[in-house]
Amino acid sequence: MGSPLLALTRLVIYLSITLPLMPVQALAVALNLRLARSLPVFYHRRCLPILGFQVQTEGERATDQPVLYVCNHTSYLDIIVLGSLIPGSFVAKSEVKSWPFFGWLAQLQRTVFVIRRGSKAGKQRDSIAERLQEGGNLVLFPEGTSNDGNRTLPFKSALFAAADTQVNGKKVSVQPISISYARLNGIPVGRTLRPLFAWYGDMDLAPHLWRVLGLGAVTVVVHFHPPVTLDDFASRKDMAEYCQRQVALGVAAANAGRTMTALPAPGATPPETPPQPPAEPHAEAGTGSSKAA
Length: 293
Description:
The chain has a single domain (about 5-255), classed as 3-Layer(aba) Sandwich (Glycerol-3-phosphate (1)-acyltransferase), CATH 3.40.1130. It is built from 7 helices and 10 strands. The chain is α/β, with parallel strands linked by helices. The strands form 2 sheets. Strands 1, 2, 3, 4, 5, 8, 9 and 10 form an 8-stranded mixed beta sheet that branches. It has a two-stranded antiparallel ribbon with strand order 6-7. The two termini are about 30 Å apart.
């Protein structure tokens, strides 16, 4: 599926924008310029039309910096979509740092790299908390991996330890986000085709990217849920479960072509997580994500 000519054209245009901006961003990061925070948003917004992506937003993004945004994770494409909407950095597994090209891009966006071993949990929390205390927004994928886009995996409560961070005497805001690749060329993407956009399991990156570049116009739905703080919950486990339910409800609604118009108030118990469809092939491996923490 897809057009090789369209894929080649998009790749050439993408590189013509990306390569000149890389040294500019590197200099901005080295000199700690404000440009280092604003240029990635500009860059990702320019990448959207190259990929044929149209982003439809629902809800309001929290702007009381710093904010810890938590989102379901489908593939590396999430980075471009969310990066076009949120001035901030991402939290990624440490392996990403050594990847050719994409690892460089991650470093240029000041990604916080974490080691996913239990013995490093304290250092992981401190790295995230330090960036938040500096006033920077962070985007975290608390599923810990990517999946086929048809379901939302449980959130790992350990990744919410940074929610206890205080800035100016207040706990940081945590905002759940749902992302869904909803329509292709104006036609709803069903369960069978949605994995076209998902990168998970043992999938190879290059063939997947080439396939995506050859697709038509894609509508991505991003729902910003009401922000919460750790003070709204008895424990970070409760917070993780609440955020997961909110995100799962948003994903299910977008996948079904519905708009979420009414959500429980922050701290209230939302409806039960909608039934999750069985995993598509590759989903169980679940280690292919470019940005999963």
